[in-house]
Amino acid sequence: MSTEPAPEPGKGRAANIFDVARLAGVSHQTVSRVINDLPNVRPSTRARVEQAIAQLHYSPSPAARALVTKRTRTIGLVTPGISDYGPTSIAMHFNFAARAARYNVESVSAPAGDPKAIRAVVESLLRQRVDAIVLVVVDVAVLELVRSLDLRIPVVVAASTARRSPMIVSIDQYRGARSAVRHLAEIGHTRILHLAGPRNAPDATERVRGWRDELAAHRLEIVPPVFGDWSAASGHRLGTELDIEPGVAVFVGNDQMSIGLLSALRERGLRVPEDVSVIGFDDVPEAGYLFPPLTTVRQDFDTLGELIMQKVLIAVEEESAVTEDTPIPTHLIVRQSTRPIDDD
Fold first, then answer.
1. Element holding 107 (H helix, E strand)
2. What is the pLDDT of residues 181-196, one digit of tens each?
3. Among residues of the chain, what percentage have pLDDT more than 70?
4. Residue 202 C-beta-side C-alpha neighbours within 13 Å
């Protein structure tokens, strides 16, 4: 076979697999084996093909690659149609992990609490022949729908739940909440209120469960939680309505609601932490720069994104393997919005 350089593709025409084969002096089947990382190609031949690919700026067709590998190297990502810190952070770090693994991500948003819309989005991704589907779930009804899905491709779910499942990847909201309440109890607080997230949010449900169980472990009074919607506005509204007096501590469902609560307490003449201790959840980038800097529970979204991708890779490339659902631990970040109750 001739090893003379292939003519440069004309303007307006991208290089194809035959151009690469001519330039490298190999068959187009050998080029295909290199592109798809298949065995039985000599290192020197592989290097020659890769050099030709780089010289011609060749980009293989995803459709052609799929015919060979039976995979598209594309993952469908279904996210809720909201801009909350948690879901957007999960999606971002999953995209980073997928790119590092040389997978493409087809992202689609759907209404957060609409199971029918979620099902329609999943069906559209199946028609695009994705290799797997990842769902970021923030509503209990959608979580139940996902549990009932019976698809021919792997499904991985980012969601908080007390029910363990190999398909679920999560951060340990329950123990994160317990660590927050434990901190407040250990610094002397005996009345610990909870501003929770939405009733239908799995994260909020697990945080309420952790708050209640830790209060019970310390034999402290359990006052019914009040529910917000994750926004600073709802934290402010609840902060103006709650029966809060000096000596009380408040465990808030997320940092955004904590921001609203801090504002409401200032308006009421209550000082944080001198009169009221406040602890949030998430550790958003702004948390350390609030007044006072916010004690909170940090979630490791970077690790969560990597773990989701790892579970996808195992499901796609090792079909018989089964992985466990081991929640990622949280970390308590103590700043200046909490202090021992007997400090002057």
1. strand 104-110
2. 999 999 999 999 999 9
3. 91
4. 25
pLDDT tens by residue, 139-190 = 888 888 888 877 788 899 999 888 878 788 999 999 999 999 999 999 999 9
For the CA atoms of 24, 27, 29, 33, the dihedral, rounded to the nearest 10 degrees, stands at: -30
* Tokens of residue 336, six digits: 């200046």
Higher pLDDT, residue 341 or 199:
199
**Rama region for 230: left / alpha / beta (φ>0; ψ in -120 to 50; rest):** left
pTM of the model: 0.78
Q: How would you classify residue 283: left for phi > 0, otherwise alpha for psi between -120 and 50, otherwise beta?
A: left
CB atoms within 10 A of CB 78: 25
**Per-residue confidence (pLDDT) for residue 183, from 0 to 100:** 98
Residues 323-327: contacts with CB within 8 Å, 24+ apart?
A: 323/166, 324/164, 324/166, 325/164, 325/165, 325/166, 325/167, 325/168, 325/169, 325/170, 327/170, 327/171, 327/172, 327/173, 327/174, 327/175
